[in-house]
Amino acid sequence: MIEKNTTIKNVEMFIELIKFNLSSSYFVHRGNFYCQKSGTAMGNPLSPALADLVMETLLDHVLEGIDIPIPFLKKYVDDLITALPIDMIEHVRNALNEFNSHIQFTCEMENNNQLPYLDMLLIRTAQQKIVTDWYKKPVASGRILNYFSFHPLTQKLNTATGFIGRVFKLSTCRSENEKKELVRDYLLNNNYSSSLINRLINRYINKNTNTHESNSSTHPEPKMYRSLHHVEKLTPALAKVINRNFPNVQLGFKCVKTNRLLFSKLKDATPQLEKRNVIYRIPCADCDCAYIGLTTQQLKNRLSGHRSLINRYADLKSSDPNRATEREEEFKKTALMVHVIENEHRFDLPGTKILEQDNRLNALQVLEMCHIFCDTKTVNYRTDTSNLSVVYSGLLHSITNGER
């Protein structure tokens, strides 16, 4: 049953791993550890799939015990819409709520022949037909991604196009001119220009009225997906170069100015020495030099390794100088140890600073080479930057020399 989706053949082990993943969410606040006892955390990649699975199980179980015909029932995650005799509404709602005490439903009934569901308003006409309209909640602010916001232009255009699509597809009770006016009013309030709005509307209409499909027999090259941080003027220029030279690469853009910057962090910050996947800099206690390193383990463990190697060499040198000299090459495992042995200097391990942190190993490796390249006081080997692309080295050379 599970072989199609995983290489784990043992069902018991698979279930045990699932339980471990679902029960190991915790966070630290003011020094106290908190573990979620019920449900899954918001933001957990498993949450949407599990919510859908739980709802399917709930409906299968509850509908078996309901002895009245239900003409239709539609579900989107935990939002349901159905039609019931008015005297059976409470009976069905109680049956749903009895399935699990942690899952409780509220009920919204048709009002003035209208019922909202997601982004759509269902309207029952006098002829007992259902028409629909695009719906927004009464408390909605009317804001979408503003045209003057710090986002890539493509994201703004896609947001506006997506809004146009929702209005045109969901508003079956409006004429085309009414849909256009609704879209214009909404987008104008979000600082999109009239000319741009008209172009987007016309493009959407032309795209959806053109039913011609290409039947090319050639197979397109598989797409590769990569992301870039959005930096005004720089990112669009880089995107043009990449698209021209690598047509199979599909780029996405990430905004560096997010709402997260506006809010204080409630969870305790991870202590510096417990951070993983970092680039760190250890200053020399006897000169202006420093050592730059990369570690994917906790920083305290990596520094412990440096300390252990330094102490072992120091102990050997104090007890048997000749033996220490003979074994120097054995201890020269890093540029840090080379500096310690050849110059008889000490490194200030407690003064270590984290320069970068990233969960992507390939990004860390590039960042490490960039920091070594830019730091003229580092004891690292110059060969440590030999794999740095000439694109980066030229740019870093300009930055190091104060050029713009």
Automatic annotation (TrEMBL):
Domain Reverse transcriptase: 1-139
Domain of life: Eukaryota
Descriptive protein name: Reverse transcriptase domain-containing protein
